[in-house]
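__Protein archive entry__

___
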Amino acid sequence: MAGKPVRPVNAIDQTRRMLSLVTYLKERPGARVEDVARAFGITEDELVSDLDVLPMCGTSFRGGDLLDIDTDGERIWWHNPDDVAEPLRLAADEATALLVAARAVSTLPGLRESDRQALLRANAKLEAAAGEAAGASSRLSVTFESEGGVFADVDRAISERRRLWIRYYSPARDELTEREIDPIRLVSVGHTYVEAWCRRSEARRTFRLDRVAEIKILDEPSAPPEIELRDLSEALVQPAAEDPEVVVEVGPGGRWVAEYYPHDSADELADGGLRITLRTPDPASLRRLALRLGRDGRIVSPPELADSARQAAREALEAYDGIEAQDPHTGPAVQDG
């Protein structure tokens, strides 16, 4: 049922499930949502999330060849199963892109050996079918950024149910911290994140992969408490009603804040700006927002946060003035008496 705590799932398991889901739905037009969710051992919310992704899949990059699947909340309908079931014909550019991507993924550290071998076998079949395009793809390569290795380690830890040790950079505090976390799932909302139970704070936390400076898979088993997974389709940061309230006033140049930060209200001001009321579990993290806004905004309340933001701005200006006062040849300027 919707809202029931579910087991952790990794990206590869989800891909396998969605591939099976396509065959299942093709053979059962108008299948009931609750029946499909029960058959796959997932919640209805997880199933609906999969159904949101499937219409972006198909036999090519052209919109007319994508899966036309929708649901009215009770039943699931697939409108073009016969069209999609036609034999796949890859254009040269599609075959090249697919081959390059497959080779790159097969080199990722932490990939399970069974999955690597399955990928290599599929790649060999694709090369045989692609013909000349396979030769062109062999001259191309992809180098993953550091996030790729972190992703592979997290995915492996989720699959093997093992704890992780990470050194993580927090931009709100401008510091590196060491933590042990029990990973729950990988999510992608603009960037890729791991949702986990943090043993340091004894609470659920979300960590952005490109901010993980170092990662190790530990021998300790991962044992996060049973918690209800949040719906992250709207936004990654979802403040709770008990979180402290912060009021920010922005000018016309700062209206973007209302688009990027979940908020309770955004009232129009006479100068074309906004008075934004929002909630956050860590109000101090908004000092950076105030510094970024500069003349385009200010924190109104709580008063102690507004004072600390002003102090941070003064310290930044003093540091800047100190640099400006230095002569690059003689060092810091010396004022007379």
User: Anything to note?
Assistant: The chain is about 35% helix and 25% strand.
